[in-house]
Write a structure and sequence with these properties.
The protein is mainly alpha-helical and 489 residues long. It is built from 18 helices and 2 strands.
Length: 489
């Protein structure tokens, strides 16, 4: 399994940890706060989104505008056709919108990958062909905003949401800068009604959003970025040991959670400052004990999107076991491919698909209930959690090795040769394990108190919480800021 294509990423995009972003955010809040007219506030937010996205390459703003214009017009066509009972034209409008978005995504993200893959496949049977390559830069956030647009067109066709009559509102729905480049993937039924209100700014919302933003910043800069160098060093070793790969997988599992959920917290916190409630993207993924619950707790906006717009249209859970297994595997394979142009991502999707199929068989046949009764509730849950955490660890190792077949081979070879020898130092191992336990401890606290536990604090407790967060940022933020992992998707 060779990695045939590595996407070139833009390097200078604005993100939530840059001083330029805080300047933009302060300007946007101030400008919106002093403006009473909702349409002017919408223009201010849209202008801020243009600056945010165009910071790394303004030319790609044209790509987003072309995509959103097609989708906006298609939505109007679909709705008017449905009202006149012209199903053919409605389907045509839906087809144009979906095809346009998939074409843009396919050209920029997958064209070279599949071209090289086809050439390599023919090469295996002795037929040499020269692949056609376009060598394009991957626009940041393209997988996210194309999914926004596709879900909008489908929902209008299904009659779940009315087509937006305001081009300004629709542009803000797609391009709202907190969620533009890495989600959460928004639904029109949830976000468009909020956009129509014109982004009201209130001091309480700014205060609440700032708290959530600070929490995400701590997860990103203190946990994720301090884990990144050790994880990179482990996976760059061409001959890792069993212990190296186990701790490397544990470190990456913790890193990607803190990185991505930290981004989500900052996105949701920023949106909240403008009166927008974005959906949560994570619950307690480190506490789950089976693959079904994992996808109910990890990247929720993607997993529910795949369920509603792929799994259910394929037939969902209706039909025979083999039919449902097919639907699950197709959904997870495409979900893996959504993450990037690499066969290792497809393998990662297949890995999760297999466990979802097996878990469904395990529960529906009563095997799980019988084992739980035999072992006792607490023991069963503990064993199930340990087993699934180990399986998840293997999955994250596959995911982390997405850019190198040799790296994946070395990692999986190490996993099949258990030994106590290790190359990483004791302090690094202890930091990885400590970070993992910190995340588990905090998720236990969240599950007991609420997703934002500090909301229950009194004034004194909240002051201590802020002080601890700020001191952590001052004392432990020693590593260079790493790019957000999900920017590449």
């Amino acid at each position: 399994m060779a990695t045939l294509y590595r996407i070139e990423l833009a390097r200078d995009q604005m993100n939530f940890t840059q001083s330029a972003f805080f300047v933009l955010l302060a300007f946007a809040i101030a400008a919106v706060a002093v403006t009473r007219r909702g349409d002017i506030r919408k223009i201010i937010i849209l202008g801020s989104s243009f600056v945010f996205y165009g910071w790394w390459d303004w030319r790609f703003l044209g790509l987003v505008l072309v995509s959103t214009t097609i989708d906006f017009l298609a939505g109007l066509l679909i709705e008017s056709s449905r009202r006149s009972d012209d199903q053919y034209t409605a389907k045509l409008g839906l087809g144009v919108a979906v095809a346009a978005n998939l074409l843009i995504l396919g050209v920029f993200k997958y064209f070279d990958f599949f071209s090289l893959s086809i050439a390599a496949a023919f090469g295996q049977i002795g037929i040499k062909i020269d692949p056609v390559l376009i060598h394009v830069v991957l626009p940041i956030g393209i997988s996210f905003y194309t999914f926004h647009a596709i879900s909008y067109a489908v929902d209008v066709y299904r009659g779940n949401v009315p087509a937006s009559r305001s081009y300004l509102d629709y542009l803000n729905f797609v391009m709202f800068f907190p969620q533009l480049v890495a989600g959460p993937i928004a639904r029109a039924s949830h976000l468009l009604p909020q956009v129509k209100k014109g982004f009201p700014v209130h001091i309480d919302a700014i205060y609440s959003g700032s708290q959530l933003f600070l929490f995400g910043l701590v997860k990103k800069l203190i946990l994720a970025d301090n884990l990144a160098p050790t994880v990179d060093r482990i996976f760059s070793n061409p001959n890792p040991t069993f212990i190296d790969i186990v701790f490397g997988g544990l470190g990456f599992m913790t890193q990607i959670y803190c990185d991505f959920s930290g981004y989500t917290d900052m996105a949701r916190g920023t949106a909240r400052m403008f009166g927008i409630a974005l959906g949560d993207n994570f619950k307690f993924p480190f506490l789950v004990a089976n693959p079904r619950d994992f996808w109910h707790n990890w990247h929720i906006s993607l997993s529910t999107w795949l369920r509603d717009y792929l799994f259910i249209p394929l037939g969902g859970s209706r039909g025979s076991s083999s039919f449902v297994a097919r639907n699950l595997m197709i959904t997870m394979l495409l979900g893996g491919l959504w993450h990037g142009a690499s066969w290792n991502f497809v393998l990662w999707g297949a890995f999760h698909g297999v466990w979802l199929v097996l878990h469904r068989f395990y529960t529906q046949t009563g095997i799980g209930a019988a084992i739980e009764k035999l072992t006792g509730g607490f023991s069963y849950r503990t064993i199930a959690w340990l087993t699934f955490t180990a399986l998840t660890l293997v999955g994250w190792i596959i995911f982390r090795c997405s850019q190198s077949a040799e790296q994946l081979t070395a990692a999986l070879t190490a996993l099949t040769h258990p030994s106590l020898a290790f190359n990483i130092t004791g302090p690094n191992m202890r930091w990885i394990f400590a970070a993992f336990l910190i995340v588990i401890g905090f998720q236990l606290w969240q599950r007991k108190v609420g997703p934002e536990p500090w909301q229950a604090f009194n004034v004194g407790q909240r002051s201590v919480w802020y002080a601890v967060c700020l001191l952590c940022l001052m004392w432990f933020d020693k590593q260079p800021v790493s790019p957000f992992i999900y920017f590449q998707f």
